[in-house]
Amino acid sequence: xxxxxxxxxxxxxxxxxxxxxxxxxxxxxxxxxxxxxxxxxxxxxxxxxxxxxxxxxxxxxxxxxxxxxxxxxxxxxxxxxxxxxxxxxxxxxxxxxxxxxxxxxxxxxxxxxxxxxxxxxxxxxxxxxxxxxxxxxxxxxxxxxxxxxxxxxxxxxxxxxxxxxxxxxxxxxx
Length: 174
Prior knowledge:
The chain is an all-beta fold.
């Protein structure tokens, strides 16, 4: 069901509450949430995730447009990972760079991302506008084989993970 608040381009001085009744299937679904878009054909914006067992999805908005309860069951994508399986890198402190994006519910913040090399946690720094993330090691690794794990979750609770096995070598060595 779609609900239209007119005029769709109006921006109000204060937010108003939006509460949509969930059907029985959506009430049990963990990945359903209240969403908004300006008009049909525009991209949907995730406002708030419904809580399992609740009969409504609640949130707030500062303007008109379309409101609906949508389901997000697609995990975020991890692309552009600079370290690759089977490759060797001449450093003991490789920087990890990648992009993490989600098309509907979105990534809440960098706490939704976990970056580890050999189970050693790296602090991720996420640019919320572009989805680009950089993580650096605080201490150098030993030369040799390593496993990088990048995982993340979107605001609907979908999770994704990428694993890469790489090797660190002494500079100048092949």
